[in-house]
Amino acid sequence: MFLYNLTLQKAGAVTHAIYGSFSGPKTQEVVLSRGSNVLELVRPDDQGVLKTLCSVNVFGNIRCLQPFRLPGSQEDYVIVGSESGRIVILKVAATSTSSARGSALNSFHFQKVHQETFGKSGNRRIVPGEYLAVDPKGRACMVGALEKQKFVYVLNRDADAQLTISSPLEAHKSYHIVYDIVGMDMGFENPQFAAIELDYGEVDVDPTGEAAEEAMKQLVMYELDLGLNSMTRKSSVNIDNGANKLIALPGVADNGPGGVLVCCENYIIYRSGDAEEAVELRTSIPRRAELPIDRGVLVTAAATLKQKNRFFTFVQTEHGDLFKVSLVHEGADVSELTVKYFDSIPPAASLCIFRKGFLFAASEFGDHHLYQFLGLGDDDAVESSSVEVKLENGAYDGMDLDGMTGQVTFEPRYPMVNLDRVDTLTSLAPTIDMKIANLLGEETPQIFCACGRGAQSSLRMLRPGLQVNELASSELPGNPVALFTMKRDPNDEHVSYGVVSFANASIVLKVGESIEPTEETGFNDKVQTIGAHTMHDGTFVQITPSSIRHIQEKGRVSEWDAGKRTTTRAAINERQAAISLTGGEVVYFEMTPQGNLVETERKELGGDVSSLSIGEIPDGSLRSRYLAVGSYDKTVRVLSLDPEDNMKSLNMQALTDTPESLLLLDESENKGSLQLHIGLANGLLQRTDVDRVTGQMTDTRTRFLGAKRPGLCKILVNGRPAMLALSTRPWLGYSDQGSYSIVPMSYGSLSHAAAFSSSMCEEGFIAVSKNVLKILSIDRLGQVFNERSMGLQFTPRELAVHPETKSLVVVESDAMSQPLTQQAPDGNAMDMDGPSADEKRRHVGEYSGEEGEWGSCIRVVDPSSLTSLSRLDLEDNEAALSAAIVSFESAPDKGPVLCVGVTKGLTFYPRKTEGNFIKCYEFSDGGKSLTLIHSTEVDGIPRALTEFQGKLLAGVGSAVRILDLGKKRLLRKCEYASLPTDVATLDTTGFRIYVGDARESVHFMKYKKAENKLYVFADDSIPRHITAVCPLDYDTVAAADRFGNFTVLRLPAEMSAAVEEDPTAGNLAPNKFQSIANFHVGDTITSIERATMQSHGKEVLIYTTINGAVGAIIPLPSKDAVDFFQQLEMYMRQEAPSLVGRDHLAYRSSYMPVRSVVDGDLCVMFGGLPIDVQKSVSGELDRTPAEVSKKVEEILGLVL
């Protein structure tokens, strides 16, 4: 077995976000670290819509990011700290190409500038890479470890003005734990770095524990002497043990006081310098009124906004509350420190403030948001000041909440006052469970994901395809047969007219602030329109079944008559036109220098023409060189349009069916060929390269789009020509970041379409569905799935699908929370169904309870509308953790029964409960409601439930039990209680049970019905912390562990046959699995499902990860494919090394050597290599670059 791993949708979680001008001077962008292994460059446009400029997998874990700018430079570099044991400096490089409108287009990519090795690879405690600080003037950087080691690098320029990096200077300190590091703004004096450290040297040698109680955190200052090229530990002062974060303030040269803010539990300290007598001010952090007095408040994210004459620092607490931190100062003298409530947003991992007035918040859980500043907090919100803070003993050291006066409280507000949300980056993180099923009866199944945590929880439905936005729609008087758009002038950016053609009439629509019928084009509205276009001189051409009408200035019309024949097909560009007449004759027209459209050549093909397409005119040319002609004899021809050999047949290709539509485009960055798209009557789409010089057709690729024959048209995507195919659903073919993709759109069937652009929609298309005219646009290119979501009350734990009603059941629970009935002050349940209440809950959060308190509910969801059919709240601190729908053989009258694993009063440190239960519910009201049948107490936490042979199979603690439905409780029929730790997952096939243990990998069990006994007959030789298991066949399972590893385990065939005879072997498994595939995904896989994601597709494994990524494990179809992709992967490791310096093979073998799995994420990067490197790699494979790209596309076509 050989597999191919491919990420379908990159991780949504953002672990780091930094702001700067990376791609050019004065640009405002953020670099994101997604899921710890993807670097992404994002820029908001003028409307505040976030656009992804480039994204790359670095094949390593990114631990920290920082921007820096060399003195005198106008662009920022990116410093990356990772598990590679190297510090890497990157810059954003741009490649310019011309757009279809003639303007320059830039494609961006990250380029490695420097790479310095300083330690071993891996996430180690004493290897630097966890912390990274940069001197604000760009002269030096410090990279630190969690403990002991810190290196400082001097950054400079060489004689060629290129960035250089010095040898590292050591700033090590043994027995010191580091909590944060920041670069101080010292102007152009020697750079200084501040760190929060804890000395535990005496703690290790003190058996009494007194040293541990007396240990104090220290604020340590390090100074880099640029003259002596040395590092010194300049000073250290004791600070509060609750200190967790440092914020450097702008220096005097930037209208700031300098110094540093020390964020501690419940308050913030300002220190002006490093000496013992330095000025120190502190003030409390305002806290929510509902927060218990013993619950501390921590700052988790911060950002600084610099203006001409002032600056503001914004901090966010763990509850999501934003505060503006201000200082009253004259020069470096600070007299007051204030912390003022600003607004409340979901808790963020990183905050970035743009000079345009935007705030980007990379949320810890759920979607990320871009906000626009409406104000700077000049209202009368709650504020705390250092002037008002006093201590009972008059000292600061050891200050705690009880010893402080001046503590202020507030109520979080919504809607927001100072911020307005303008855009959102969707994120599935964390994805906790997933189910794949075609619950809507569509062509492809849907993926249902349980995502988020707490107030950010959601249920999301993913459909394969791009998201389409419907901007406007209007009903037409009939069903059109064709649709065209035209510009008033060919150099205009926006469309001016739309032409809707019916069987015996045409309507011309004028596009402006509104779309209205017009007669100003001079079109004949009494006949059908087969073609319409604006010519290079601003005149219009209308092609009808009987004539070609050239409408010139002042309404003058010159008309060419088709005579007794009828025009059946037409193709036209700004200077050329071609039509086909009944009988198979093709007539070619061309614009003369005098501005007349005249016939120049005819050609008889000997059979009726089914489709025509003429290419766009290249820059600097007067005509397109080729005309593509499809015939009913199942052939397509390329005809020359050169004056020397006009209408000469250059090449012909036989097809499997009639070519119903053709589209000749110049859409790729490959200057050697054009692309001819052929839509066949059997639903296939063929894409063939046409040589620009000879007209020969090569490199044909085929894709099945649907049962309906595809109609093709040209639109613009990112300024480049793209193919829109209309089959049973729309498809888009486009080039992006060096690779070509054909992806479906998540939208219904369309009959006709044409490109559209206006001031409100720069790139879109106008389309017809039955008799409705729609204006549509495509959002979020690069996302494979279109997403719909509904908010949930608590963190979802598991999903279950009702086999009859096709509804979804979601079990939700949250620690340190309460049911809604207890949260409402009047004792009544809060109305969470209203949009304002739900939005407030997502921004402000919910009640934060005590340890051992739980809020939980069971929800029945309609998958078509994603609305709650019913919700059952659990009381008395009960928490639903698992669920399964079981059809009990002993109670067929009950129908499918919902079994829910519930624990009561669960605490984790130490882990204890007040009771554990399995509750059984009967569906009522047509499957919309739940009625409790009974509750059965068990002696362990029921973490896993599933159906088995008409009974319930339950994992209760470390025991596996078979339970049947009784009248008053569940009846125990069989039990196996000798598993190593806790049952994490349960899956079944026939009489075999596959048990995933929380720490000891997978166990195979067999149930012998005659003896009513369970036996473990096989287990693994490697301990694995199992998170997901999926049976592949009777003897094989795919499994994933919490450290990001995917493995396939198989019981040898001879052992499997022997087990069928006698599985007994006491409490020890006599057989061991063979590990036939290993692969490090890099992220914890939370669920694995077998699915066929498209009609006529292959069955693959779909998995989701905790960081919100969706991936596929695809079986390679043949030995040739295995050899090809293994060789391609080998060469790609050499030609596309990791940007963070991590060895690719070592990364994919982080815990176990990679085996029998090809890294598809590395193979798909082939299209982004320079063309000379592509030729070199493909030459080693004895193939052309086009053949290699075709192979890579074919694998993706097995999934989507």
What does the model show?
- This protein has 1200 residues and is mainly beta.
- The protein is globular and about 110 Å long.
- Helices cover 7% and strands 50% of the residues.
- Strand 91 (1085-1092) and strand 92 form a beta hairpin.
- Helix 6 (1119-1135) crosses helix 9.
Give keywords.
1200 residues; mainly beta
What is the count of helical runs?
10
Based on Cα principal axes, name the global outline: globular
Strand content: over 45%
Strand order of the largest sheet: 91-92-93-1-94
Helical fraction: under 10%
Ranges where pLDDT stays below 50 over 5 or more residues in a row are 390-405, 824-835
Largest sheet: 5 strands, mixed
Say how many strands there are.
Answer: 94
* N- to C-terminal distance: 22 Å
Radius of gyration, in Å, reads 33 Å
Average pLDDT confidence is: 90
Estimated structural class: mainly beta
Task: Give the helices and strands, then pairings.
Elements: E1 3-9, E2 14-20, E3 29-34, E4 38-44, E5 50-57, E6 62-68, E7 77-82, E8 86-98, E9 104-117, E10 131-134, E11 140-144, E12 150-157, E13 163-165, E14 169-170, E15 176-183, E16 192-199, H1 201-205, H2 210-214, E17 217-225, E18 230-238, E19 245-248, E20 260-263, E21 267-271, E22 280-284, E23 287-288, E24 299-306, E25 311-317, E26 321-330, E27 333-344, E28 348-353, E29 358-363, E30 368-373, E31 383-385, E32 390-391, E33 404-405, E34 409-410, E35 419-425, E36 431-437, E37 446-451, E38 458-464, E39 467-475, E40 482-486, E41 497-501, E42 506-511, E43 515-517, E44 531-534, E45 540-543, E46 547-551, E47 557-561, E48 567-572, E49 576-581, E50 585-591, E51 597-604, E52 609-614, E53 626-631, E54 635-640, E55 649-654, E56 659-665, E57 673-680, E58 684-691, E59 697-704, E60 711-717, E61 720-726, E62 730-736, E63 739-744, E64 752-756, E65 764-769, E66 772-779, E67 785-791, E68 796-801, E69 808-815, H3 820-823, H4 835-844, E70 854-862, E71 867-874, E72 878-886, E73 897-904, E74 907-908, E75 911-912, E76 915-924, ...
Parallel strand pairs: 1-94, 23-34, 85-89
Antiparallel strand pairs: 1-93, 2-3, 3-4, 4-5, 6-7, 7-8, 8-9, 10-11, 11-12, 12-13, 12-14, 15-16, 16-17, 17-18, 19-20, 20-21, 21-22, 24-25, 25-26, 26-27, 27-31, 28-29, 29-30, 30-35, 32-33, 36-37, 37-38, 38-67, 39-66, 40-41, 41-42, 42-43, 44-45, 45-46, 46-47, 48-49, 49-50, 50-51, 52-53, 53-54, ...
Helix pairs in contact: 6-9
